[in-house]
Predict the structure.
Amino acid sequence: MEHLIVGFQDVLNPATLFWVAAGVTLGYVLGAIPGLGKATGVAVAIPLTFYLAPAAALGMLIGIAKGSAAGSAVSAILLNTPGEPSSAPTAMDGYPLARQGKAQKALKMGLFASVIGDFVSTMILIGLAAPLASYALLIGPVELCAILLFSLTFVGGLSGRSLTKGLIAAAFGVFFATVGLEAETFIPRLTFGMLELDDGIALVPIAIGMLAVAEMIVQAGNIKALDVESAQISDGASREDRVVLASEWRRCLPVIARGTLIGSVVGILPGLGASVGSFLSYGATVRASKTPEKYGTGMIEGIAAAESADNAVVPSSLVPLFALGIPGSVIAALLIAAFILHGLTPGPLMFKQQPRLVADVYAAMICASLIMLVIGYNGQRLFAQIIRVPLRLIIPGVLLLCCVGAYMETGSVFSIYVMLFFALLGFFARKLDFSFVTFLIGFVIGPSLELTFRQSIQILDHQAVNLSGHPIAIVFILLTLATVWWTTRDNGRTAASQQRGDCGQTDPTEAETKHIKKGG
Amino acid sequence: MKHSTEKHTTGRHLLGAAVALALGWTGFATAASAADDYPTGPITMMVGYAAGGQTDLVARATAKVMSEQLGVPINVVNKPGAGGAVAARELQKAKPDGYTVLFQASTVINSAPFIMERVDFTPDDFEYAGMITAYQVGLATQKDAPFDTLAEFVAWAKENPGFSYGSLSPEARMYMEQIAKKEGLEANIVPLKGGGDMINVILGHQVVLALSGGIHKKYPDEMKMIAALTTFRHPSDPDVLTIDENGYELGMDSRTTLILPKGTPRPVLDNLATALKAAETDEDFKKIIAAANIPIMYFDANGAAKEMADSYANNKRIMESVGIIQK
């Protein structure tokens, strides 16, 4: 604790705070741009920090990661094009809210949920890094496999109006995830001789293509109607549309608490990532809600659920890095290099050898949370104006950014082709009302599920009996079975009683067309 | 940004070609004089792995030193894919003028062609400006494991059939298959994705042994190495025998190599080699490399070409002897 006070003394000076704030701002803007996310931001900024003091440099890099997780909500809400794949669920309810003239309210809730998730998760990192990390090691491939299997059942809750279509989309996601070198024999699957596909299809071009580019095509399709509507939207006509009301706070706080918890746990577990966190939190919230059919039409809880989990993943994914030296996420892997350059080797020894520098980093992380609140709060007023810009001006700009974003990660034009292919797929998915959310869940979870399943078979020595030594896995397998039974029963009943078919979330496009019809 | 430079280079290239055509023999003279005052502009250094890994770390540190030496900026560009083969293909298409280089593990040339059907590189397809660090590949296990050497492990494994071994590459699988075949062991080979995954399963006691590309050296309190899989003993563990010394002739080496397109002028290679040598004694570079526990083993242009040819021949012999490729 006294270390932390010293840490604050080191960080609370104009120079260090400036760099942390610069990092958060940079991250916030990068996050808001489709395709340019935390990973790109941190990777590009690492050389820039060579010349800064360690506390400022590490604070800036972590600031970028935190800022971009929050910033990605902005474009999700305003343009229905999530800045990062992990903010896709934010767009579900955020965009309908923005279209209803409640952009500022949605942005504020997104920001508050982000900051709370981030702050609590940072506290978890500071207080529990060491003890939690040793528990995380108990979660081996067998347990992870069972947890991932359980996660897949959330597909049921996110399938939209048709469970069958949701499952088909998820199956397609898993299918595309099988492309690349097979993990055990290294035989290339479905690569058609292209070396670029050996490592599989990257998530970023897929997500940009399916979410952002496809959305821009759809919007270009009814540009007239949307332009008319944009002119009509008076941003925040009444105070109620601009601020988060006390009643909404009451409804959202438990959602944020759950999202933060889910995000923190997902962050600590190896190899899951922010997308899994936000999708799970959104799915859990829809499932827990008494009115799941309203999700997708502008439920503010949806934003709270997705954003709190999305941001909570970032600090907690540093837990395995700090406590054991194991990178739990791409960001953590990138940060290792930066930490070493600045004289801090991540791992248990760093608490003994460099307690002061660790405290500095912690203090910088807390400052970054608060700075994020200030910058986001002032920025959202400015960002909200985007909604009034005619779409014919926005679409070309977003498309350009999409191409840049797809290109950045691998530095090859091939990724842009991948993006275009999935834009086409995403376009038809929207038109035919297939959920791209379940597609992405299948794609994100599929490869990890396959790998951990194969690992489990080897570790269990090909004997199902050996599962008895893995109680955590057994619990999750039982939970999975129970959920599947519950979902199918529930779904059968809903289908029978509700012929209107308004169960689950509605596609944002649907909500938007409905709204246009109402407005015109 | 990167894209526009590329276009720019192509433009220059076309112009150069046109001039060369018009003037006939002067084409050669232009190339020679260009090589003499090399470098005059920024250099693009490709890395065939994603940002954040061990090779990327070394590449960025090397780029910093070389940039200071050569007086021009060096931009590190990550082009991950197929263990570097995607980047190597891209390098083959680049102009051999020294402004596009690849910083990569030598495995992309001395091992990938034997493992991946669609990769057919040979050492003669590229030029080499030097090598700077070596990978300390070895068999790693928990610090408290009941064996300290490969021989002791084999004895233990005979008593414990059905043990788990972590493998993150075809080579890793080959090692255990060969040892198991020779000694009659019953091994479960657990597929892993990358070094982070390897650390997880070792520290979490999910496997008893795993192949490590060198990352285990960062965990001296939790892990130990029982055999080096290189042809030399590791500078960090001089007492641990190599796999060859254990009686299995399977040792293979990989080193970070500065690779250039075929036809790059000799003065350019030497220029780069001299700049690379500065890394050997650079304090910052040594600090970064030491933190990651990677040994510096410098080779100049000639040494690198010889090492690449030798290791290619050695690996080919091993792959043939174990039946991965036909003679």
About this structure: Chain A touches chain B through 50 residues (CB under 8 Å). Residues 2-519 of chain A form one domain. Chain A has one domain: 2-519.
